[in-house]
Design brief:
420 residues; alpha/beta; Rossmann fold; 8-stranded mixed beta sheet; 5-stranded parallel beta sheet; 14 helices; 38% helix; elongated; binds ligand SAJ
């Protein structure tokens, strides 16, 4: 077994460190955030994922995993730090560069360096390789470099880390082989060997594919709204075709992956990436569209009050990064609406819902948490001044509201007066 150093104790780095330790390696989990390290040292987890806490307890008790604010000498280094977009939608590599720089004093001949962070094509070969060579070692000869992008769904990270097929993109075939050796110990899925440029582009295309398909669903919603058709019925029927699978329209695309990664392709090939740019545009405009619809539903009501259900970027997670829900709430507040927010996953908004809906005029469902399926809508809507629901996620069954006095809307039955 080897000594492993994982840099970045976030959504990907921490579960990876835990699984490496579980596989028997001696692992140091590194993060520059001292508060995060203190929390981990005292047995807490900065992220909430199924089974993570129990497995963390086991591997720290076994002595295989410890935490530090600085890297240490090791056989292999895994870098899993964020790569957000900058203000111009270009990839901000600052954290990756800082992480790689921090490794330089600890590198030895024969070391493996794996970049898991999502990066634009060419980053490992053109940016990370020269940085690593500041150590005096040559990549491909003394040091081994690979890009092995993570592929996990937030909310199901541990399961997907273990079971998904994994791309291993080495700078040389030997780099791939060495990297694959580490993943073999924790991944049950297939290891797909390639070069680092191809691995970088492949990762971006996975999330771009999904962003584009959600954009198609969202555009279908806009077209159906204009034509007075029920988009949900159209999609349901189209999906009965054996080779069609249109995704769900909704309030927009959030999170730190789909809403960000396509821009890294646009950055590299701006004139070619036309469809990809258009998909980003369509999805980015959804929050404004939904806000306008919500406003239209409230027209004619004096001093309307909205209760927004959910601020997270999707259901059953606590993550609010790039959340369309937040953007919609901002739009509505800027337009002068009184908006009260409820989200059981986010401490600041985990309030008494019945008190929040009291006297309100619109319940605006923005995140598809399973908890929202279990609410007592009969009791909640009775407390409202105007019992009106707008489910932007197609989460609730409209049939549950047909015999009540509740006015229920989703993207399939937006009323005529709101048509563009
Ligand atoms: N969404 C829709 N309609 C849909 C599906 C999703 O509006 O039909 C919205 C969600 O509500 C959310 C956003 O899209 O706001 C993204 O959600 P998601 O569940 O599709 O994806 P992420 O960002 O949580 O995770 C993705 C995954 N990529 C793919 O499914 C191709 C995951 O496998 C990646 O590892 C992850 O990005 C990542 O880290 O790159």
């Amino acid at each position: 077994m080897s000594e492993v150093c994982v840099v970045g104790m976030g959504y990907i780095g921490l579960p990876t460190a835990i699984l490496m330790a579980h596989a028997g390696h001696q692992v140091t989990g590194v993060d520059i955030d001292i508060k995060r390290i203190n929390k981990l040292d005292s047995g807490g987890t900065p992220i909430d994922e199924p089974h993570l806490h129990n497995l963390l307890k086991r591997v720290t008790a076994s002595g295989n995993l410890r935490f530090a604010t600085r890297p240490e000498q090791a056989d292999a280094f895994f870098v899993a730090v964020p790569t957000p977009c900058d203000d111009h939608h270009a990839c901000d590599l600052n954290d990756v560069i800082t992480a790689i720089d921090s490794l330089i004093p600890y590198l030895r001949s024969g070391n493996l360096i794996v970049v898991e962070s999502t990066v634009p094509p060419g980053t490992c070969a053109k940016k990370i390789k020269p940085l690593l060579e500041k150590s005096g070692f040559i990549v491909g000869r003394d040091l081994h470099l690979a890009h092995c992008p993570e592929r996990v769904l937030p909310g199901n990270i541990l399961y997907e880390l273990v079971n998904n097929n994994r791309i291993i993109g080495g700078f040389t075939p030997q780099c791939s082989e060495l990297a694959a050796g580490y993943y073999l110990g924790l991944v049950k899925g297939e290891l797909l060997i390639t070069d680092c440029d191809t691995a970088e582009m492949t990762k971006l295309m996975e999330n771009t594919y999904r962003d584009l398909n959600i954009a198609l669903a969202n555009e279908t919603a806009l077209i159906c709204h204009q034509l007075g058709l029920n988009v949900l019925e159209v999609i349901k029927l189209a999906n009965q075709h054996p080779r069609v699978n249109i995704l769900n329209p909704g309030p927009g695309v959030g999170g730190h992956c789909l809403a960000v990664d396509p821009y890294f392709i646009i950055e590299k090939a701006p004139s070619r990436a036309q469809l990809i740019s258009m998909a980003r545009k369509i999805n980015s405009e959804m929050p404004a569209y939904i806000s306008r619809l919500a406003g239209d539903l409230l027209s004619g009501i004096n001093d309307p009050r909205i209760v927004a259900l959910g601020v997270t970027y999707k259901g059953n997670v606590a993550d609010c990064r790039e959340s369309p829900a937040l953007e919609i709430i901002d739009h509505l507040q800027l337009a002068g609406y009184d908006v009260v927010v409820y989200d059981p996953y986010v401490e600041a908004f985990n309030r008494d819902l019945l008190a929040a809906v009291h006297g309100s005029d619109l319940m605006l469902l923005l995140s598809d948490h399973n908890d929202f399926l279990k609410l007592d809508y009969w009791e909640l809507t009775r407390a409202m001044r105007t019992p009106m629901i707008f489910d932007t996620r197609n989460l609730l069954d409209p049939a549950n509201f047909t015999s009540s006095s509740v006015v229920f809307y989703n993207l399939g039955n937006i009323p005529v007066h709101t048509r563009p």
